[in-house]
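ok so i was messing around last nite and threw this chain in just to see what happens. nothing serious, just curious
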Amino acid sequence: MPTHHPATDDPAFAHRLRDLARLRRIRDRIDREHAQPLDVEALARGEHMSAGHLSRQFRQTYGETPYSYLMTRRIERAMALLRRGDLSVTNVCFAVGCQSLGTFSTRFTELVGEPPSAYRARHAPGTPEPPPCLTKHATRPIRNREAPAT
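result:
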């Protein structure tokens, strides 16, 4: 009796697997080349997809658009560079691949909760950290049943 292989028996399933592989390659490229000038059209062109199809499929698969994913990678790298304390916010902005200081600052503030200059000042080498017991208490997740009653 022959075995059943969904990928070979169902063209839609096989197509979806190919799309997932392409999306994974695009995500890996963003991870590797986040500091390079990347845009959705170039990413889509590299995998022979339309920009619209890429955006829809990427969001459906990863829960965010390719642009949002790229900006998140750039902000994560910026956080590390700002913690070093040896680069200005402007230099960090361009080092991570952003072309606009305003867009970088806005996105950084949205994702991190404070402007890049404040983050840099707070995390610069030599800045005293609060005692670990306070940090642990302040960042401890609260379960729903422990949340204060309203």
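not much to say yet. Residues 11-33 form the longest helix (23 residues).
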